[in-house]
Write a structure and sequence with these properties.
The protein is mostly helical. It has 13 helices and no strands. It has helices at residues 2-22, 24-41, 45-53, 58-82, 87-109, 129-154, 160-187, 195-244, 257-262, 268-286, 292-304, 312-329, 349-362. It is elongated, with a radius of gyration of 32 Å.
Length: 378
């Protein structure tokens, strides 16, 4: 669990490095998680063992880990204090952070006991009470402030990504607070049996902290996937309709659907939006070529073909549009644009996609009618 959460944390840090470093509002959170991840990485027995094999003194690894851990707690406080814009409070946190890290170094150098060559990787560089008190209190204060501030700020935002990131970071801070409180209890004489549970808690904390970083990435991936799905599903209907009504499109379709997806001429979200709008515009033109009897005939054809009840409306419209498209290509005159329309357009993009899914099967459903005749006449 611990090593897996470390891998996920580093993955999240790499994924968010570019956007976070470009935006000052995200930079503090990213640096905070970077420091915490480095400390957690140096907490892993496998990592400490590898460093020891490479000739690094385990005592130095433990001291470095604890210094970085205090730094991460201080960065949490700084990122929370920055949002308040109180310069004195910011300066106080900076001074306190420097004093805490300096005290750890001094206490380690003044340690009265001899350094052992292979101490437990779960213990600090110096087990003195003052050393532990500074280390644990730094984490407890940083995590407590993070919980309060992140949770309160999440109640004030309407932005979904920020809300989720703040809530997840707050939950991760709760778990970190529980870990350090339990760890202090263990060092004060608590039962050693609690250590596996503490390791589990800090591992889950790593997953949640990684999730708080990855919320914008996951949201962006979901939007890209949605745009890709719309572009792919809508392409056959869109390309056929704009071929008949080219005046509604800014740029004609490419040679194939795969090329449209793999080499889009605009960002996928914009491509999907443009195809949707242009398809609606084409429907408005083609509806002049659809009378009620055409729609009803397409409806009956779809029912006879075994189309499910919930897809009949989309299938009927697809069949009627197929005849209307052929009528335009044959040069048939349409009805008056200001007459009452016989068929309602799809009311939302999901309904339009249902029509697109029925298009391949229904485009030529009414091929027996005379497409060159005016609308409503065979």
């Amino acid at each position: 669990m611990g090593l897996c959460s470390v891998v996920i944390l580093w993955f999240a840090l790499v994924c968010r490095a570019g956007p976070a470093l470009r935006h000052p509002q995200q930079r503090g959170l990213w640096l905070t998680v970077l420091a915490a991840t480095t400390a957690i990485t140096l907490f892993q027995p496998v990592v400490v063992g590898r460093l020891a094999d490479a000739g690094v003194e385990v005592h130095a690894v433990a001291l470095t880990r604890n210094l970085i851990g205090v730094l991460s707690a201080g960065l949490v406080l700084l990122s929370m204090v920055d949002s308040t814009r109180y310069r004195r409070l910011h300066l106080s946190v900076v001074v306190g952070l420097g004093a805490a890290m300096g005290a750890l170094i001094v206490l380690d150098l003044l340690a009265a006991h001899p350094r052992v060559s292979v101490p437990s990787v779960q213990r600090p560089a110096d087990p003195a009470s003052a050393y532990w008190l500074i280390l644990v209190v730094s984490h407890l204060v940083g995590d407590a402030v993070a919980v309060v501030v992140c949770w309160s700020y999440s109640l004030r935002t309407d932005e979904r990504d920020l809300f989720l990131s703040l809530r997840l970071f707050a939950v991760g801070s709760v778990l970190a607070f529980v870990f350090w409180a339990g760890y202090l209890w263990h060092l004060s004489g608590g039962a050693p049996a609690a250590l596996p549970y503490l390791s589990l808690i800090i591992g889950v904390h790593g997953f949640i902290r990684a999730a708080s970083l990855l919320v914008p990435t996951v949201t962006a991936m979901a939007r890209t996937w949605s745009a890709l799905r719309v572009t792919w599903q809508l392409w056959p209907l869109w390309s056929d309709l704009v071929a008949a009504v080219p005046q509604v499109t800014l740029a004609g379709p490419q040679r194939s659907r795969i090329r449209e997806v793999l080499r889009p001429r605009s960002p996928l979200a914009l491509q999907a939006h443009r195809q949707t709008i242009e398809t609606y515009d084409a429907l408005l033109v083609l509806q002049q070529y659809i009378d009620a009897d055409v729609y009803e005939e397409a409806h009956r054809h779809a029912r006879r073909g075994g189309v499910r009840e919930d897809r009949l409306e989309a299938a009927a419209l697809a069949g009627a549009l197929g005849l209307a498209r052929r009528a335009v290509l044959a040069g048939a005159p349409g009805s008056s644009p200001d007459r009452q329309l016989a068929v309602a357009l799809p009311g939302d993009p999901a309904a339009l996609l249902r029509v697109a899914r029925m298009w391949p099967a229904m485009a030529d459903a009414l091929s027996g009618r005379d497409a060159s005749a005016p609308a409503g006449r065979t």
